[in-house]
Structure formats: C-alpha cells, structure tokens
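Standup notes, structure subgroup. Blocker cleared on the magnesium ion input:
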Amino acid sequence: MFFIKVPLIGIDLGADSVKLACLKDKKGLKELILADIVKLPPDTIVEGEIIDSNAIIEVLKDLSKTYKLKKTNVATCVSGSSVVIKKVKFPVMSKEELRESIRWEATQYIPFDIEEVNIDFHIFPYEEGAETMEVMLVVVKKDKIELLSNILLEADFIPKIVDVDLIAIQNQFEFNYGIDYESTIALVDIGAEITNINIIKGENSLFTRNVPIGGKYFSKELQKSLGVSFEEAEKLKLEDKESENLKKIKMEFLNLVSAEISRSLEFFKFTIEDTPISKIYLSGGCSKISEIDKILYEKTKIPVEIMDPFKNIYINPKKVDVDFIKSNASLLPTVIGLALRRI
Ligand SMILES: Nc1ncnc2c1ncn2[C@@H]1O[C@H](COP(=O)(O)OP(=O)(O)OP(=O)(O)O)[C@@H](O)[C@H]1O
Ligand SMILES: [Mg+2]
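Run returned:
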C-alpha cells in the first residue's frame, strides 16, 4: 500500500468489477505501484450502461479510503452504446481545418443529436494529391461523460480524462508490444457483458466492433442448466471442476463467442480490407477460460495469444501482490491503458 500523492490513476468500471491502477515513472521505466479489482453487485452496469451509480460510488469511496486517494486525478473510460467509432471519408484538409468543421462534417454519420456529443478524430495517412482522406471518428455522448464525472466527483476523485475502452487497450498494447507497421492484428477483449474487437495496423485502428456477449452469458446458461443461483453458477464456473454439465456449457459458450469473433473478422475481410490478420491478442476475464485460445484458433485459423499488460512494466513486489496481479493480468489491459495516460 502507498500513501504518496500520485499524478493520475486509471479506473475501469466494468460490468463485473471496478479495476484501479497506478503507474510510476522510474528512470524511463514504468512501475506498477497500485492495482486492485473489486467486484460490483450484479446489474450495477448492464451492457455498458450504468444502472446503479450509488453502488459504484460506494466501491470507489472504499478504494479511496484504503489507498488514501482523496482528490486524485483519474482517467476512466466509456464503452457500449454511448460510443460510436466510425471510419469515414472527408475531403482532404488540415487537422486544424477539420477541427473547425468536424461538427458539420460528422453530422450525417452520427446516430445522436450533434449537440449531445463530444467528437474526437484521427486522420489516416493519405497519398499526396489525394482528394479524400480517411478519418476515424470517435463520438461519445456528453451525458455519459457527465454521469461518469459526477460519479467520480461524488467519490471525491478528480475526473481528468475520459477515454474509450478499446482505445485504452490499444494504447496499452502499443506500450507493451511496440508498434508493428507491417502486420494486421486483432485485439479482442471478452469481458462480463461485452466483447470488444479492434483490428489494428501500426498505430491505426481499421475496424472496431462491440458484441454484447461475455462471461455473464456463460454463468446464466449454467444457472439455468443446474437450477442454482447466479452467484453459485459464477462460483462453479470459476472453480472449473470436472463436471459433464459445466464442460458442455463451457464448450457451447466458447463455440458461440468464437463464432461471433470469427464473423466480425470475416466481415472486416470482406468489407473493409482483404489483408490477413496475423494474430489475435486476447484479454478480458473470459480469456482465462481454459481452452479458449484453442477453440478460437480452430474457428479462425489465426494464432491466438493471451495479452500480457505487464510485458514492459515492472510489478513492484513491495507495493502490490505480484501473484494476485499476475493471475488476474488479463483483466487489466484497459485500466493499464488508462493509467498510462498523462495529463
Ligand atoms: N478464471 C476464469 N474462468 C472463467 N471466467 C472467468 C475467469 N475469471 C474471470 N472470468 C469471467 O470474466 C468476466 C469478467 O471479466 P472482466 O473483468 O474483463 O469484465 P468487465 O470488464 O467487468 O466487464 P465488461 O468489460 O463486459 O464491462 C466475468 O464474467 C467472470 O466470471
Ligand atoms: Mg471490461
């Protein structure tokens, strides 16, 4: 535990748990000095939407008290239906010109009232003399940002950055694995309720998709099949003991989620860019399910690797429980991406 004032912490509010992390710069290296994962009551966050703010505030207040984090700056993220990420074509113009006209240019691509959103963008490289350029639009509903900010303020934190979850994962990936300008890679995070897919090449995101499936679906199927409570089903799932019923439902879930991922990757190939995807990097709690990499490989024929968000980060054993962090590493890419942000 540490009690020094830190510049910024990352907080990832997931459907299953709140994750918290803080990194310290030490001689050009990054050091993990704080990380925790706290379960949320069921149905606090459903499909990326916050249903029970008070439950989150309680958890955040407890964390603040435990780690003495009152009035600490926070980077957090949004996901789900309040975010639209879209690649569109605009006439060639400078970054400044686009910044001036983005609201007008983007109107036709956004399913929300333009006054109700914040818009960020990224211009893809284009050939000299080109008339159009590709732009990645990142649109977030203002009310979602306000809600998150208010929750953080209520818990006595200072909201500084609101990122998008799959962009936070991508930043973390670049930091840990470097930037590969030659290969097309799929970053796939299978959480409790949402599976996030982000296909990248170099620093560019080529395609993103949210599929509403995750570990809760697995637990609910188990709950129905065994006639037990959700909590009991969740417990049995995590214990992963030999049982025919559990094995059958696990395989059904793995086949279903792998088919969804495969379908998205095929969609990318046929409609966006016909380049082979060289690897899938998997994260999220469901990447801990045994055999997930094997089943996903069988469905996609793309090599699968479980992402390590600490590949390039020193886990300080004097500050954090190394065993706990390592065994839960695949739950932490998003929050590490947030903790890497600087104000
Ligand atoms: N060892 C494990 N075996 C099977 N499932 C696991 C294991 N560990 C965690 N999970 C499942 O992973 C899910 C939690 O993953 P994660 O923490 O990435 O989700 P989240 O970020 O809270 O949710 P979301 O991103 O969907 O909002 C839960 O459904 C949990 O049951
Ligand atoms: Mg998550």
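Discussed briefly. The chain has a mean pLDDT of 94.
Next: hand off to the docking folks.
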